[in-house]
Each structure stands twice: as C-alpha cells, then as structure tokens.
Amino acid sequence: MVNWTQMHDCYGDVDRVPALLERVELEGNAEAWEELGYRLVLEHDLVFPASFAALPGLVRLASRSARARGLAGAILRGAAGHHGCDDLLADCADAIAEFRKLLDRHLQSRPVDYFAAFLNLLAAKEEYHWSAVLGDFKDDFYHLACPHCAVEVTIAIGDYGRYSAIRDWNLGDVDRRGLRPAWSGGGARRP
Questions:
Q1: Shortest CA distance to 17 belongs to which of 6, 27, 73?
Q2: Strand order in the sheet with 140-145
Q3: Residue 44 CA to chain centroid, in angstroms?
Q4: Residues 152, 156, 162, 167: is their CA dihedral positive or negative?
Q5: Which of 29, 51, 73, 137 is 20 to 30 A from 189 via CA?
Q6: Secondary structure string (H, E, C) spanning 16-32
Q7: d(Cα 20, Cα 99) in Å, to the nearest integer?
Q8: How far apart are CA 38 and CA 21, in angstroms?
Q9: Cα–Cα distance between 90 and 87 in angstroms, integer?
Q10: Helix, strand or coil for residue 184?
Q11: Which of 45-49, 123-127, 181-185 shows the highest mean pLDDT?
C-alpha cells in the first residue's frame, strides 16, 4: 500500500494524485487525465515520487487506456534522469514487467501509436538512451562532413523527406540526393 503522505508531485502536493487516479479510473475524465499528466511528468521528463507511486495504477489501466500507456511510458522515460527515487522505481519492478508484456502485445497489433509505444517499451526494458534518442530520428536535420571531400552536408530524415543536400543560406537545400543503404565495412564492396 502506498503511503501518499510521502509522495509529492511536481507541485509538492501529496493529496491530488491519488484523487486524480481514482477519477480517471472511475470516470475516464479528460480534465483529470490532463492534470494527472502535468503533476506526474514535467517538461524535460522530470519525474517525482508520486510519479513512481502512480505507475502500478497506470499500468493496470494501460490495457484499456492509451492515455495510461502514454503516461506510464513518460514516467519510465523520465526514470533515466536524476530523480532521487531509485527505491520507488525498484518497488515498481512487477508493474514494469507487466507493462513490458502489455506493450509487446500492443505493438503486435501494429497500432497507430506504434512509435510512441515502441519508445515506451524501450524505456520499460531500461534502454533509456535509445528511448530518448530515437525520437530525434522522427523528423530532423543533421549536419555532417562528407567522408570523401569534407564539404558540409545536410541529412534530412522525416516529414521533410530522406535525402542529403548542400545547404545554401539563400536557396535552401540544393543538389538533393535520396538516401540509400551503403556498405560501411572494410574490404571488398558488396554488390
């Protein structure tokens, strides 16, 4: 049983999270979900004792609630940061194992929220680094030096396309070339 008098949220309150959990479980209230989310996970993935105390309840709701899956995943992604709650996280081991199984089943159905569920699964498997950096590959630009001539090249991956180009301040990306797999190993080049 959770001693909520010891579990503060991001505002230092100890009484709001259990009441909000009860509201979302009984009513599925959208306002309660929104408040619960910003009390448990702050911007930049900061989490609090109440976040980990709420995790088992969120996992119980996760099979029937996308919001519960998302919030539980956000809490686990925040577990990589400095939160001072390692003992509370360890107490959630059974809930986290259950969450991993649930996410595995959910991903097998190829859901609309596949990418978010995949990032949550990585965090549930303690692959915090990959859970954090894979989000950057969804839609971004990378500036690299060409390995052959050292010219700065822009690599676009995501909604803008998948290409390499030379970035010109006035013209944008010029001389676009689609990305394709390349052999990176030593020795003879593969066909």
A1: 6
A2: 140-145, 152-158, 161-168, 172-178
A3: 11
A4: negative
A5: 137
A6: HHHHHHHHHHHHCCHHH
A7: 21
A8: 13
A9: 5
A10: coil
A11: 123-127
